[in-house]
């Protein structure tokens, strides 16, 4: 590992001058170069898009999986890039209970035959629900996550870079202004 003291000192100096410029701008003691209104509009739209995407993603996850501990488990499996074990839905479980009860009561009884019919349909509903949850996660939630984890990170990185360049420009403008004022004072004497 190459440790360069000069680069570290230079980076610290740049950071310090940017911090001073930023603080002076916030206190109204230094001029701030305004960004293009169109760019400002795009940045505010990007912020709004990020905020609404986060809200929609959270609420959709809550809707699809109301159990917080199950959501945490899904999150952990997702971060570990492991496949989430298949979990039976409540409708499938109810259908299975109905089928088990029908076997105990007897298939030939009216109650047993009704439980079998309803139980089979309840299991089908549960399977459809599980398929819906999977499809929703793949086709709706994944693009939202991809935006937040990919595109938004790029936007944030570029925004920070733009802000740093703007601060550097304002620092140079302030230095030039001070140099011109000092030069004018020297010419008057």
Automatic annotation (TrEMBL):
SMART domains: BAR (SM00721). It holds the Pfam family BAR. It comes from the Eukaryota. Residues 24-189 form the BAR domain. This is Endophilin-B2. The lineage of its organism: Eukaryota, Metazoa, Chordata, Craniata, Vertebrata.
């Amino acid at each position: 590992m190459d440790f360069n003291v000069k680069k570290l000192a230079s980076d610290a100096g740049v950071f310090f001058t940017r911090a001073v410029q930023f603080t002076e701008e916030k206190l109204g003691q230094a001029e701030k170069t305004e960004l293009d209104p169109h760019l400002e509009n795009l940045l505010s739209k990007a912020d709004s898009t990020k905020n609404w995407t986060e809200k929609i993603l959270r609420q959709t996850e809550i809707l699809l999986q109301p159990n917080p501990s199950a959501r945490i488990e899904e999150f952990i499996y997702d971060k570990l890039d492991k496949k989430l074990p298949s979990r039976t839905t409540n409708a499938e479980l109810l259908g299975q209970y109905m089928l088990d009860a029908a076997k105990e009561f007897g298939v030939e009884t009216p109650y047993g035959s009704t439980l079998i019919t309803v139980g089979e349909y309840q299991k089908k509903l549960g399977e459809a629900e599980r398929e819906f949850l999977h499809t929703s996660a793949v086709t709706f939630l994944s693009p939202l996550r991809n935006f937040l984890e990919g595109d938004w990170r790029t936007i944030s990185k570029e925004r920070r870079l733009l802000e740093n360049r703007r601060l550097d420009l304002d620092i140079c403008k302030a230095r030039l202004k001070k140099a011109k004022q000092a030069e004018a004072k020297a010419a008057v004497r």
